[in-house]
């Protein structure tokens, strides 16, 4: 269901709309989108995935039909993966394997680079991504099978690099906790990235692992402004809660990192220094950042959000974004996709480095251990013991 009103408005602004953009945007968006249907969600529309032959459009026929539609509710489905460890060979990231316990993410971060993956399910990267979720059933058992393979060589497994393992449905389904239990028994190193305070639930597993040099946690803090955070990532923990989570984890002896990610030009870039100062005071001792990335459908989803909430900044923001990507909204080239290039990207990188150094971040990197790994017994080996 493509939000053609917002998309067309974005095109008008790009081409040079007249003054009064804020009023025009507000009238267009409110008149076209059933706001109550997406309350508490990040995306503005639900455009069909790029692989679909037919395009679905939500259109008001003048008979108030849209008013009768229910609000988007979270729907959970199940899939049973044959393998659970995903591999990559990207030089831009420090790990070569990861686990995603869930597909889709209820946090609803409007800028999420994982949104386009929902198109492979025949679903929209828009509202479907944050409301049509998939639980990877038997993830812990699949992990144990992979770790028990005779040729498996341990290296740090990253969790939370695609969708958040501690999103709200984890409270019920506990996929992440079961995965941690397997990793703990095998003495396997793990690095976690999250925006959720729910990670503190698993301190009883993470603290003993951290004591052995097997675990570390990164919290993404995008803004200290609760209102802005709610607009960008509506169902993620509020900023103060994330800082409190950093404190709790640090006090439990778990190495913590703050990620200022993503940095969005002219939206949250002015908060870099303040976020780092607050995170250091909370106990984080490492810090990193990622520039806004807009691959595939994320460009239109973010543009709709920007026109809806910050119409007067649309031209400026997108000009800076394209200035970092050789005139494009996104450049997937290794070495550029995470940090961008050009004057603005360079200046932001130097600001981050100076602020990090001033606070005392990154004096030492916590390297996780792989030498303690104990391969889980395979099923036939367990039967032999009996």
List the helices and strands and how they pair.
Layout: H1 4-15, H2 21-32, E1 75-79, E2 85-87, E3 97-99, E4 102-103, H3 127-131, E5 132-136, H4 139-147, E6 157-159, H5 170-173, H6 175-185, E7 190-194, H7 203-211, E8 215-220, H8 226-232, H9 239-251, E9 256-263, H10 272-282, E10 286-291, H11 298-309, H12 314-323, H13 343-359, H14 379-385
Parallel strand pairs: 1-5, 3-6, 6-7, 7-8, 8-9, 9-10
Antiparallel strand pairs: 2-3, 4-5
Task: Note down, in words, how this protein is organized.
- The chain is of the alpha/beta class and 386 residues long.
- Helix content is 36%, strand content 12%.
- Helix 1 (4-15) runs antiparallel to helix 2 (21-32), helix 1 (4-15) packs across helix 11 (298-309) and helix 10 runs parallel beside helix 13.
- The longest helix is centred in the last third of the chain and has 17 residues, at 343-359.
- The N and C termini lie far apart (57 Å).
- Residues 1-5 and 22-33 have low confidence and may be disordered.
Low-confidence stretches: 1-5, 22-33
In whole angstroms, the N-to-C terminal distance is 57 Å
> Roughly how many Å is the radius of gyration?
22 Å
Largest sheet: 7 strands, mixed
Largest sheet, spatial ordering of strands? 2-3-6-7-8-9-10
């Amino acid at each position: 269901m493509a939000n053609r009103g917002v998309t067309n408005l974005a095109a008008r602004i790009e081409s040079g709309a007249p003054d009064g953009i804020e009023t025009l945007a507000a009238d267009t968006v409110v008149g076209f989108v059933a706001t109550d249907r997406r309350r508490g969600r990040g995306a503005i529309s639900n455009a069909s995935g790029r692989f679909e032959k037919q395009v679905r459009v939500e259109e008001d026929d003048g008979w108030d039909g849209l008013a009768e539609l229910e609000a988007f509710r979270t729907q959970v489905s199940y899939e049973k993966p044959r393998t659970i460890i995903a591999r990559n060979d990207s030089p831009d990231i420090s790990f070569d394997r990861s686990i995603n316990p869930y597909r889709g993410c209820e946090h609803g971060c409007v800028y999420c680079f994982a949104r386009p993956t929902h198109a492979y399910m025949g679903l929209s990267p828009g509202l479907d991504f944050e409301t049509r979720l998939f639980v990877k059933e038997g993830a812990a058992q699949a992990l144990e099978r992979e770790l028990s393979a005779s040729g498996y060589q341990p290296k740090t497994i990253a969790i939370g690099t695609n969708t958040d393992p501690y999103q709200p449905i984890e409270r019920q389904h506990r996929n992440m906790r079961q995965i941690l239990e397997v990793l703990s028994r095998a003495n396997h190193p793990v690095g976690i990235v999250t925006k959720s305070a729910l990670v503190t639930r698993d301190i009883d597993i993470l603290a003993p692992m951290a004591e052995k040099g097997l675990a570390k946690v990164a919290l993404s803090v995008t803004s200290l402004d609760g209102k802005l955070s709610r607009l960008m990532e509506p169902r993620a923990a509020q900023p103060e809660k994330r800082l409190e989570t950093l404190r709790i984890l640090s006090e439990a002896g778990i190495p913590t990192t703050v990620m200022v990610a993503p940095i969005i030009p002219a939206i949250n870039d002015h908060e870099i220094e303040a976020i780092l100062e607050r995170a250091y005071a909370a106990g984080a001792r490492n810090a990193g950042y990622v520039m806004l990335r807009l691959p595939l459908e994320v460009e239109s989803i973010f543009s709709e959000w920007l026109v809806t909430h910050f119409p007067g900044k649309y031209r400026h923001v997108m000009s800076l974004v394209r200035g970092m990507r050789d005139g494009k909204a996104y450049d997937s080239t290794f070495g550029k996709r995470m940090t961008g290039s050009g004057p603005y990207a360079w200046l932001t990188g130097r600001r981050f480095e100076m602020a990090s150094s001033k606070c005392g971040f990154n004096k030492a990197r916590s390297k996780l251990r792989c030498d303690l790994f104990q391969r889980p017994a395979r099923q036939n080996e367990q039967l032999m013991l009996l």
